[in-house]
Design brief:
Four copies of one chain form a homotetramer. Chain A has 279 residues and is an alpha+beta fold. Chain A has two domains: 121 residues, Urate Oxidase; 132 residues, Urate Oxidase, CATH 3.10.270. Chain A is 23% helix and 44% strand. Chain A is built from five helices and eleven strands. The longest helix of chain A is centred in the last third of the chain and has 18 residues. Chain A starts with a strand and ends with a strand. The interface between A and B is large, with 79 and 79 residues.
């Protein structure tokens, strides 16, 4: 059986682009991590080392910077611009994948107002998008990563299956905490990206906060369902929710009356709950 | 359009299992990072919070430890044992994914011989496997991660496409370095796992070392082709090769004659070359 | 010359303690990373393996949890309680060092108000303290880490020394960014810790934002000076400020008019400016 | 009380320098991480923003690369060259601190022999040095970091102090594992650096392997004592040894006879044992 080249792509990963809009004294900061990859006919490079079809990863990086010249705008639009440019640049480049993470910055407060040009980095959360261009088609998946949330009550976990390796006690009151990775997959490009992102994020947080949870699976599904219910343009929600275990420390061992208020936040190993909710 | 649950799974990630075989005074150490995930009918947990079908991630972790009691053996076999156990444990669990990374340890040399029970950790490289069980079927993908390699010559990069954003100079002699992530996908379970792994790894290293490279794409393909040629049981090889750029530092700027021997090892941003080679 | 035991200490590092005050329906969350170390007469353990003087690191961890039973309060007070307890526990334990990092959490907003028991993690910044107890004496150093700040203008860097290896262009307008590690060393324990911390932090941010900076050294000194001027209880400020380089990308190379608005945020290598300001 | 500038320094951190000696077809690779910092009279930069005394961190980086032109040699000598150069460059620069980590690379074996110009990265261990130049004086501390070692028997821990928070069981057979950070402080510059480093490292490993250990403290002291006994040029050894806990998993809970061969390798929280041994 012959040996052949299968799916392949190449690009530049983690281009850290900062754009400062200085058009007014009130600067606006955009801070991105951009990764691009190209798809198409690159067989010669693989088989014979003929690089004539290779648009270098260095040129891809340069393109990211050059396209930021007049501002970045919404990351979905920026990724679409990049993806369509790459796909339109040479006949043999038929597809592109552009992934962007956006870091948040707050204005430093001085005398009760945000400063014009001094900023502090917001939390670890990133707004994300993955844009795939395939010929004339384009496809947008947006979402977020690094959003760490915790409920100190309103979460149970009991009634689960039991086998000989099941030793976990049931609980009707536990800490539920997770580090949300969410992706929402749009069925259209006719979207007002930022308001849609803000609504989806707000829905996610509100469901997490208000749902009385019997499992992380239930929370996951309810979040996906609510995001879909609120935004017709989204066709599928994917969630990956590590269970950031907070283990109750039994203080009774030390001769003090335990009140279930002291926990060990454990990073190892962790439950990982993943699911897709769709129309 | 109704909202429904799509693909989902849950499990315990990064169970750090160390097994010491103490059956003789010459101990044998096995050091693993195991992640499991279960698939099947978990709709009730998601939709109503009824956990009767949930085999807890805690029980999955316990199973990993319990199954190590009589030794781990090859990671492919250990993952198959775990995956088949989970799939066979309850009617509603129809599939499992078990991923294992194995860390290497060397015996500490004392008086010219390896010590019986004292070890030092080998490099960052891990032997890996991903086993997927789907009903009666099982499927093994093995490989490695964290293998960092470098060629100080025997690598060119020129003749690539040029657009207005291409500024990279051509070179007929560069450092080629990468951090190999390789997966080889077996078409059968009738494999002598460890010898097959060792042969694939040796082939990978030998091709990297001896191929005169005109691009990382060419090196990638040649590695995949050679692994496939050497092992009929493998049906596909997947490689993900970051380009660990080593940027020549032009010492001429400082008034000294440059000899192209001094480089800046850059971690940002990096080229990423990914490809599949198959029969 | 005889070989002797010099300074030594041992303890438990990175005890991740979460306390939930559930005394009212509006829960309060305290999230800490606590490291303790003990000093004293531990010669026998080192020289002969006699552990009679060793208060185990496991017991130190347990103590951290047990002491949180009735709430943690301010981290400086919690560290003092722990340090004095350890030092008072056995004759041969004459000193202790307790280091605490506190992570921030915000209430998740629901219907315009913060939720009673649902939280999201604030940024990467941590409030820190290092308490050293030596016999009857105690000493508190507070501060912060992980506060990332950036000025998009109002920063110059020119007029520096030149040798044959100096190639950096002068600039009268650059991005100034850093990841602040600050410690302020108190000369007394008679401090209202939280208000003092908040004032020092606010001063730091305000000076960073408003000072027209000719170097990171100047900014560093001005921050320290302002903190000292504002708080008589502080005797010394120590700052460690990496220069998070934002390198201007010259878009002119791509045939577009450059506006100095596009930057590469580089993580490698970085300037590191460290200094002490004191009375 | 006046506010004044205290100790301060600035430099470039983590300059990643790779040198390839191509003088023969058998290339030699040197891979370093270099951090420099300068001390002296930098008051004007701090107080008034006058940078005339600042030798930029960029120039420090350039110097590291330029000095590598004719080869790096032993890291201690390279750091001494750099430190003395900086200190001798301008009157107001009176001291320098140069820290170097060296990464190891092995030749890739091809046909039973190491390849001329293809290498694979050795483990996470780094050879380290910290050189401090103060006027005409220079001082060298060498060592290693990232050396992970484990004994699967030959380690006890019992007879320790007990208070109300002590719940740790005694054990006469445990896994002892640590991630060694060692520094040895030379009292002279008249040292054959590489053989001395190799002997100290071999001694460290041999003592770890062969000493029957009653505590990590005892192991720490014995290592330091043996290094000092073997090398008169060393005046002090400093060791920082995290206790990489390997927790026995009691399989009896799952109805199988436990053999004490299965362990959970825990990363949180960890004991940390630090000590100095000197003449």
């Amino acid at each position: 059986m012959a040996i052949v080249l299968g799916p392949n792509q190449f690009g530049k990963a983690e281009v850290r682009l900062v754009h400062v809009d200085r058009s007014t004294p009130v600067h606006r900061l955009t801070d991105l991590n951009v990764s691009s990859a190209l798809r198409g006919d690159f067989a010669a490079a693989h088989l014979t080392g003929d690089n004539a079809h290779i648009l270098t990863t260095d040129a891809q990086k340069n393109t990211v910077y050059a396209f930021a010249r007049d501002g970045v705008g919404e990351i979905e639009e920026f990724a679409l611009r990049l993806g369509r440019h790459f796909t339109g640049s040479f006949d043999w480049i038929t597809g592109a994948r552009v992934e962007i993470e956006q870091y948040g910055w707050d204005r430093i407060p001085v005398d009760g107002a945000g400063h014009d040009h001094a900023f502090s980095r917001a939390g670890a959360e990133r707004r994300t998008t993955i844009v795939t261009v395939d010929g004339a088609d384009a496809h947008v998946v947006s979402g977020l990563a690094g959003l760490v949330v915790l409920k100190s009550t309103g979460s149970e976990f009991w009634g689960f299956a039991r086998d000989r390796y099941t030793t976990l006690p049931e609980t009707d009151d536990r800490i539920l905490a997770t580090d949300v990775r969410a992706e929402w997959d749009y069925g259209t490009l006719d979207v007002d990206w930022t308001p849609a992102w803000e609504r989806a994020r707000a829905t996610l947080l509100e469901v997490f906060a208000t749902l009385y949870s019997r499992s992380l699976q239930q929370t996951l599904y309810a979040i996906g369902e609510a995001i879909l219910a609120g935004e017709p343009a989204i066709k599928e929600v994917r969630l990956s929710l590590p269970n950031n275990h907070h283990l109750h420390v039994d203080l009774g061992r030390f001769g003090v009356a335990d009140q279930r208020e002291v926990f060990h936040a454990s990073a190892e190993p962790y439950g990982l709950i993943e699911g897709t909710i769709r129309r």
